[in-house]
Amino acid sequence: MMKMVAEEEVCGRQVACIIYDSIMNFVDAVAGRLKLPSIVLRTTTAAYMHSHNVMFQLLAENLIPLPECQLEAAIPEVYPLRFKDLPLPATIEIPQIVLDFMHSYMDIRSSSAVIWNTIDQLDHWPLQQLEQHWPVPFFSIGPFHRMAPAVATSLLEEENSCLSWLDKQAPNSVIYASLGSVAIIDENELIEMAWGLAKSEQPFLWAVRPSLLNGSDAMKSLPEEFIEITQERGMVVKWAPQKKVLAHQQWEGS
């Protein structure tokens, strides 16, 4: 980083400030050596960061670990946050190395300000709470994804043929089903989903990625009878271009 700053000065450009991701906490020390102000970038929401402070407070008061039966209970004074919503499991002893990392992650050190990936309308109360811990200016300029150029984010091959199929369906008539790119279910659950869509008697678009089942191809495990009775009103793909599907005119007004 020092080399980069030196190169900028050679080119006649003065570095005014260093903005760094909160995970890269060493940058604050580098900025201090360079006598430059630093601003920490929080890519998460303020509500998520506030939940860390709540976790530390509960630990200090010896309120966790707690029994699993209390996970659904609301945490006093921070409604609607529940114990199950905390960033770390509330029913086990948290290793000290994890707590040390959390403390380091939460510390803004000598930063002059904090940039947030949120907006005040969504995170007003958590931002107010965090301002009591960090008395520096806050800049809520998110959500960042609205500023970034559109890029392909899918790790799976998308079947765009479903978009032309959607074009032919009546407005607001299609059920879109997808369990995402991580979830794994068993064959019974897959079959239950299949027959649920069949019995809905509605047109449907269903993304059934091959790895949805643990150890076998989910597409090949669909009942033949299901495929036969739904082929006129349903479309099953291995992976759908989800952003385009959700932005499709099919859903307008739904």
UniProtKB/TrEMBL annotation:
Top-rank lineage group of the source organism: Eukaryota
Family matches, as InterPro entries: UDP_glucos_trans
Key words of the record: Transferase
Transmembrane segments: none
A Pfam family it matches: UDPGT
GO molecular function (one): quercetin 3-O-glucosyltransferase activity
Entry-linked SUPFAM superfamilies: UDP-Glycosyltransferase/glycogen phosphorylase
Keyword match Nuclease: no
Statement: the UniProt record of this protein carries the keyword Transferase: yes
Gene3D superfamilies noted in UniProt: Glycogen Phosphorylase B (3.40.50.2000)
Annotated family: Belongs to the UDP-glycosyltransferase family.
Protein name as it appears in the record: UDP-glycosyltransferase 76E1
